[in-house]
Design brief:
Layout lengths: L2 H11 L4 E5 L7 H11 L4 H5 L8 H4 L5 E8 L15 H4 L12 H10 L4 E3 L4 H7 L4 E2 L5 E2 L6 E8 L20 H5 L17 H5 L24 H4 L2 H4 L12 H4 L5 H4 L4 H8 L12 H17 L1
Antiparallel strand pairs: 1-2, 2-6, 3-6, 4-5
The structure holds iron/sulfur cluster (2 copies).
Length: about 300
């Protein structure tokens, strides 16, 4: 079996849904794309400066790199409890916590690579762009990566020291020229134009890294009942709407704890509960010391729910 096939089989055996492999040179234009994005929305410069290094040429940062492996894991195969919808981002809560292997087992895949003499490192790379270059899907006007099953998909990327190529051919129908549903669904105006955004207006940012603050250029009502993240621009998209979140497999203990995570109940929980049952599920968007961020967001969600 050729190496690309072995990697593909190992990815599937580790719980991923698909796998592509490209050359580092295939994303050599990514720094230029980021530069254009910053020029198009100058207010985003401060935010993107923080991630700019991920867009620099892979070979400069990993001189031993021969290929980039990118893996997808569909979140849409799981149910997402109704109590959590419009409050918690699905991508956060449907990503496995460190040490949990219910969706995919990244340690298993990494151990497989090590056992097969492959040097690897989890790559600080523009994953959505890499996924698109590997033929695993497309990037839509709301900036999210979509496979043929929609945008609720996790991406993982590895730099490896072996030369091989695996292109998939997943090419969902592109966005209709006239469609602006995602922009209209973005209450804060963050999604200000197709294929771009103002990160500092994004509710997902302010409920997580922004520590629950409402900056002076946004209004509290724009946060609706979001407690951690925001899915509005994905939920509004016709390419996601056919998905029924009542169907599929259960994920972890979400259904058992969902009733404790509604805004009023969340305020009654201990710091320990918030750390283990909520923050640990946010895919590193909140830190263990952020228990009060959750409470700030829950209090605002209650006010907004009352005013809705
Ligand atoms: S996540 Fe929410 S706030 Fe951010 S761009 Fe999408 S709809 Fe707008
Ligand atoms: S809502 Fe319309 S424009 Fe936005 S990503 Fe979906 S199809 Fe594209």
């Amino acid at each position: 079996m050729e190496l690309f096939q072995e990697i593909y089989e190992a990815a599937l055996a580790s719980g991923y849904d698909n796998c592509g492999i490209i050359a580092p040179e295939d994303i050599s234009d990514s720094a230029a794309l980021l530069k254009k994005r910053m020029e198009d929305v100058p207010s985003s410069i401060g935010f993107y400066e923080g991630v700019k290094a991920n867009y620099e040429p892979v070979k400069e940062r990993y001189p031993w790199a021969k290929s980039i492996v990118v893996l997808t894991a569909e979140h849409g195969k799981y149910r997402f409890p109704p109590e959590l919808r419009k409050r918690y981002a699905k991508a956060f809560f449907l990503s496995p916590e460190e040490g949990h292997t219910e969706a995919y087992d990244h340690r298993k895949f990494e151990n497989w690579m090590t056992a097969h003499g492959i040097r690897w490192e989890e790559g600080h790379i523009p994953l959505r762009y890499v996924g698109m270059k590997a033929g695993l899907g497309i990037i839509r006007k709301n900036n999210f990566f979509y496979t043929d099953k929609g945008s609720f998909v996790g991406l993982t990327g590895y730099i490896i020291d072996r030369e091989c190529v695996l292109h998939q051919n997943i090419s969902p129908r592109p966005c209709a020229d006239a469609c602006t549903l995602c922009q209209k669904a973005c209450r804060s105006g963050s999604l200000c134009a197709p294929y771009t955004m103002e990160p500092m207006r994004c509710i997902s940012f302010w409920t997580t890294f922004g520590k629950g603050n409402v900056p002076p250029f946004l209004e509290e009502s724009m946060f609706e009942e979001w407690i951690c993240g925001c899915d509005n621009c994905q939920d509004a998209c016709p390419h996601n709407r056919r998905h029924n979140w009542d169907e599929g497999e259960p994920f972890s203990d979400l259904e058992e704890i969902a009733s404790k995570l509604v805004p009023g109940k969340l305020l009654e929980q201990t710091d320990e509960f918030l750390r283990t049952e909520v923050i640990a599920k946010t895919d590193n968007h909140l830190m263990p010391e952020d228990t009060n961020v959750l409470r700030i967001n829950a209090e605002r969600a209650i006010r907004n729910g009352q005013n809705a």
